[in-house]
Every structure is written in C-alpha cells, then in structure tokens.
Amino acid sequence: MASLKDAATGAATVYVICSLLKLKKSKLFLSVLAGAASSFLSRAVLGLKRELYPLEAWIDSGKREKAIEPARPMIDPHHHLWDPRMHNKGWPINIAVVRMLYKLKPAIMTSIFLNGSLKDNPAIVTTFSKFMPLMVPYMINEMLRDIKNAAQGSEPLNYDESNIPSHNIKGTVYIECGWIDEGATEAMKSIGEAAMAQEVAKKTNNLLCTGIVGHVPLEEGAAECRPALESLVRYPNVRGIRDSLASSVHEHIFSPKEMKAAYNPKFREAFALLKEYDLSYDCWLYQENIADLRDLALAFPETTIICDHVGNPIGIEPVGLEKSFETWKPLIKDLADQCPNVMCKLSGLAMATTGFDFHLRKLPPTSHELAEAW
After folding, report:
1. 3-class DSSP state for residue 280?
2. CB 229 within 8 A of CB 273
3. Separation of alpha carbons 251 and 286, rounded Å
4. What's the first-to-final CA gap in the chain, in angstroms?
5. Helix crossing, 321-338 with 290-299: angle to 10°?
6. Which of helix, strand or coil describes residue 138?
7. What's the pTM?
8. 305-307 and 342-344 as β-strands: parallel, antiparallel, unpaired?
9. Which of 30, 101, 167, 356 is most buried, taking the most CB atoms under 10 A from its CB?
10. Strands 169-175 and 280-283, how do they pair?
11. Which helix (H) or strand (E) is 282 found in, with range?
12. Which spans in the chain are helix H?
C-alpha cells in the first residue's frame, strides 16, 4: 500500500488543483493550471474516458484470441470484484484520501502504491506483482468485458465493440477478497461483501455472482462466528465461505495467516458449524499448508472443501520452479488420495509466486504459452 506520507501528499495536490479549477480566474490562469493538471490528473476528472491502468494496458497489448469453444456453456468458478473507492479494503489510508488519489492518472497512482508497498510491505509486490492488481477497480463492466473478449476501459460495454466470439459464460462464483465494515465485530466485518455480491447478481440477472463464497474469520471461534454465518446464509446466492490458511516461512511472500492456523481449537470449533449451515469451505493456501488442509479435511469428512489455486506451489526464489514441483506433487497427491471431500480448482497458476514470471514480460502470454507452461 502507499505510505501515509505519499498518499497524503498526492491527495492534497489533487484537492488543491480541483479546488483551483473551480475558481473564476482569467482564461490564461485557467489554461496554465489546466495544462499543469493534465500532466497528473486523470481525464476522468473532466468526465472523459479515463486512461488505462498499467495492468489493463499490458493485458490489452497482447493479441486478443478467439474463444476456443464459444458454444460450450461454462461457469467461472473463481473470480473477485473490487473497487477500493467504494469498498473498504483495510488499507492504512482514510477512504476519503483513497478516493482523492483515484483522481490521479492511473499510472501515477500505481507508482505511488507500488513505491509505498516496496517500502512498507514488499511481500505484497512479490506475491501480486508490480502491476498492483488489488488497486485496479474490477466490477461488473470490467468482468463483462473479459467475458466478451473486449478491451478494458471505464465506459459501459458496447457488445458490438468486438467481433471476436465471446465465452459462453452461464454463471460465475464470487470469492471473497478482503472487506472491512468499520464498526463491525471481527467476525461480522465482511458481511457487507456478500451484500455487494448479491446486488451484482441482481443487476446482471444472476449471470455474475450466481454463487457467492463469503468470508468469516474462523479463528474467532464458534460463538462469534455463528451470528456471521447466520447473516451470510440470508443471501440466497451464498454457498460457502473462504478463510485462508496461506502462510509461508518466506518473509517475501504475503502471509495473511499464522502458521498452523488449521489446528487452532477455536478455528476448528467454528469450522464445525459449516456442516450445520450447509456451507462449503474454500481455502487459499501455499504448498507449505497442504498437509494442514489434509488434516482438516480428515477431521471433517462431511464438509466439502475446495483447495484453491492447486495448492499454490511456490516457484520463486529461493525455492525455484523445479524444487517447488518436487515437493508440491506428493503433497497434492496425498491430499487427493486421502480426502474425497476435497475438490481442487485449476486456478492461481498465473500468480507471481508460482515463478513462471509472465508478469515480467513486455507482452502478456498467449493461451498456448500458458497451457504449455502449466
């Protein structure tokens, strides 16, 4: 995340420029000021189509491919939605400051957040890449553009924009991705995320967020988590929860959980409630945590468990791709052999931690390159 100093400076600058632009001054003054502002304020401030974020520009720089089987009906089983201007993501910056920063050109704002993260929490960059995807708004319009094979942008999607066959998506599963309702208890802080996803489902006639996997921090224990689970299941599309076990011994990898979280007695007493509410359990983890997930699955054989991102093999240094695969393969095989209640998602292999380094290339990989690498 951006440092408080960088964020405050950027927001103050934006505020001053925006305020001055509203003043009734001479045409020359406004012309000079507008010229200066145009070097770092986004076109969106003037109601024009905004510039692309570096991640969007990089993705669009590659060749847009046709859907291989455009007639095949599909369900996207794992996606996120976020807009930090509207959703509190727990950043150490006031939401008003965040909204002000989003008036900057996307490339400038990305640089601010990148430099701040490199200084304050470099594991964010190692894990999610220099493109800082967590700060790029991705909501209904952006996801529909991906489904329709259209280029990214902020304007409403024009379905005639691309004559490339789109993917025949019939539904999607929304996966929690960090949310904080200020003033709520720790167990209840992510309930608003499920409400947001349910509203997206309503707006898209249940095309998006057809299923919703919310978040409840199980380490809070059964007494705290029960009200949260009861609140979640009131939303008709909720099918499960995700509570990460992701923790690595490598300091340069982002670890939202403590090691061995799955063995915490309070975690397990809350986990036992999932069967009662007929909810599945999604788990983001690293290969170091696969054995922990196996033990959890063996302890709760009647609960459906989904291993996200094929157990997230860690292929970056100091481990390396080859050594990572050698240690990951027997772990994931053991999980499959012993735990019939565990399903595995073929996802997450594009994350920077896997070590394929596609994000370091000038152009994004093609689908054939990805298939060959994976």
Report:
1. strand
2. yes
3. 13
4. 30
5. 10
6. strand
7. 0.89
8. parallel
9. 101
10. unpaired
11. strand 280-283
12. 4-22, 27-37, 54-60, 95-101, 106-120, 122-128, 140-147, 191-203, 222-232, 265-271, 273-276, 290-299, 321-338, 367-373
pLDDT digits (tens, 9 = 90+) for 210-261: 999 999 999 999 999 999 999 999 999 999 999 999 999 988 999 999 999 9
The residue type of 341 is: N
Secondary structure (3-state) at 63: coil
Bridge partners (DSSP) listed for residue 213: 175, 240
DSSP codes of every residue in 204-270: TTTSSSSEEEE---GGG-HHHHHHHHHHHTTSTTEEEEE------S-TTS---S-TTGGG-HHHHHH
Phi first, then psi, for residue 219 (nearest 5°) are -65, -10
Between the CA of residue 275 and those of 121, 131, 154, 240, what are the distances in Å?
37, 39, 41, 10
3-state SS record for 164-189 = CCCCCEEEEEEECCCCCCCCCCHHHC
What is the tens place of the pLDDT at every residue in 41-96? 898 888 888 899 999 999 999 888 888 899 999 999 999 999 999 998 888 888 88
Q: How far apart are CA 280 and CA 278, in angstroms?
A: 7
Rounded to whole angstroms, the Cα distance separating 204 from 143 reads 11
- Total residue count of the chain as it appears in this document: 374
Q: Which two tokens stand for residue 146?
A: 């991906």
